[in-house]
Design brief:
Strand order of the largest sheet: 7-10-11-12-13-14-15
Helix content: 40-55%
Shape: elongated
Distance between the termini: 67 Å
CATH architecture of the largest domain: 3-Layer(aba) Sandwich
Structural class: alpha+beta
CATH class of the largest domain: Alpha Beta
CATH topology of the largest domain: Trna Endonuclease, Chain: A, domain 1
Largest sheet: 7 strands, mixed
Number of domains: 3
Strand content: 15-25%
């Protein structure tokens, strides 16, 4: 049978163009979700994992999604030929306008195909190799094929795994997967063995990463991107070493040009060296999820470092521009071009600079005042001392006073102002202003247009300003 090339795990998942079910209710959030948007918000690998969890919850009578038209539980399916996804009702009685099912249910089709394949010659061959490998390992006991496994909590519930065994007190179930194991079968067995405190291992007879069926992806991505194969070679090695050896294929992430890419690794490993996760029903040789998360954290950190570097360049270039033009902007073509270039750069930081630097007096005053404190000398105003800057702000720009006060502390300019305040005029002025500021007098509420630029150029000061005014509900 021809199998379509495998889907790229790191590509965006796709929805059918015109799904029968266009909207679902998320029972956890209470929100109605557009099916196309929700599917496209996932990477392919993440959606496959979610698809398994959706069916597990549905089987546990706790469905995650309901059809928005009829409120019947729905689950995620895909067209095998192109891996495009859509939602399907768990049952249909004709009352819902969205028709998603054929005459036979997925469960009926699954039962027919699954149980038929269990009697196929390849299935019997792989099952025999698994049993042989287990019996070669003295640490596995109670090895049995096709034996009934009854639930300890509910004897009416049972499964009949291909092979089962016990390893140092831990029960294992082994299921051979050849071609078509429906998602309902996968989810049902995962839930059963999880409830039993046992581990389920799906075993293949062969695996080609480049030509994977959708049903293989259900097992791959729900098992931390690890797939296991038992063949003649591994069975012979199990006999030689007296340890159950298994072939593992797993994805391994790497960073190329700032993005995650995958390579496939193949190794033969003793089963007792695998990492087990009963709650997640995962058994793996390589922790893909941890490795991918670590690499994504590295990418984010590098992006943050680069963003911080570029932001530092923008801050420095802006300061140098202000040194030349803070006291007065001359509208020459070159000056206008430079300012417009700065506006475009700052727009990437979600900051809308004025059309021209001489159009917003409050922003000009803030820049002059804060740069003066930072540099310890007047910037932008024709003053000789920083104390003159302080008096100018208090008299003409009271809405900057809270920020000015925090800037004095941040840049440690209190001693400089005290030294230049030879006649104590500044100290007297502060004594008069302080009570009004502490009572959050609205005359001193910062101009909202100054906050975004303040937050970018002087973030420590902006945080304190916003916190100060938020205490009385008077945020700028």
């Amino acid at each position: 049978m021809h199998v379509a090339p495998s889907a790229n795990p790191l590509a965006r998942a796709r929805s059918v163009e015109k799904p029968a079910i266009t909207e679902v209710l998320d029972r956890e959030s209470g929100e109605f979700l557009d099916v196309g948007d929700w599917i496209a918000s996932h990477l392919y690998q993440a959606l496959i994992e979610e698809r398994v969890r959706i069916v597990e919850r549905m089987n546990a009578s706790d469905p995650k999604f309901l059809c928005s038209d009829c409120y019947v539980p729905v689950y995620l399916v895909s067209r095998p030929e192109d891996r495009i996804f859509f939602f399907r009702h768990v049952r249909e009685d004709g009352s819902c306008p969205a028709r998603t099912r054929s005459a036979l249910s997925a469960e009926e089709i699954a039962a027919r195909k699954y149980h038929g394949l269990r009697e196929s010659k390849p299935h019997l061959t792989i099952k025999g190799l698994v049993q042989r490998s287990l019996e070669a390992d003295p640490n596995f006991s109670a090895v049995a094929a096709e034996a009934t496994w009854r639930s300890e909590s509910d004897p009416k519930r049972y499964r009949r795994p291909d092979v089962q065994a016990v390893h140092l007190g831990q029960r294992y179930a082994f299921e051979v997967q050849l071609s078509t194991t429906f998602l309902s079968v996968v989810a049902g067995r995962r839930s059963f063995y999880r409830d039993e405190g046992a581990l389920l291992m799906w075993v293949f007879g062969a695996f080609n990463p480049d030509y994977r069926r959708l049903t293989t992806d259900d097992l791959l991505f729900s098992n931390n991107s690890n797939i296991f194969v038992v063949d003649d070679e591994t069975a012979a090695l199990s006999d030689e070493t007296n340890r159950f050896q298994i072939r593992c294929f797993h994805r391994e992430p790497a960073i190329e040009r700032g993005k995650i890419v995958d390579k496939w690794t193949e190794l033969v490993i003793p089963v007792d060296e695998l990492t087990t996760d009963i709650e997640g029903q995962r058994i793996f040789a390589f922790d893909y999820a941890e490795a991918e998360a670590r690499l994504r954290a590295e990418i984010r950190a590098e992006e943050e470092r680069r963003a911080a570097f570029l932001a530092g360049l923008d801050r420095q270039d802006f300061f140098e521009f202000w040194l030349d033009h803070g006291s007065g902007f001359t509208h020459t073509p070159d000056n206008r071009e430079t300012w417009q270039a700065l506006r475009e750069r700052f727009a990437h930081h979600d900051i809308a600079l004025p059309l021209w630097p001489d159009l917003d007096g409050e922003i000009r005053a803030m820049l002059n005042a804060f740069y003066s404190l930072r540099e310890g000398r007047p910037i932008g105003w024709n003053f000789s001392k920083v104390i003159e800057v302080a008096h100018c702000v208090a008299e003409n720009h009271p809405r900057l006073m809270s920020g000015f006060g925090f800037a004095v502390k941040h840049f440690k300019r209190g001693p400089l102002l005290a030294e230049q305040d030879q006649r104590a005029k500044w100290r007297e002025r502060l004594a008069g202003i302080a009570p009004a500021l502490n009572s959050r007098d609205p005359r001193f509420v910062p101009e909202p247009t100054t906050i975004p630029l303040m937050a970018f150029l002087f973030p420590e000061i902006a945080v304190k300003v916003q916190t100060f005014w938020a205490k009385r509900g008077a945020s700028p």
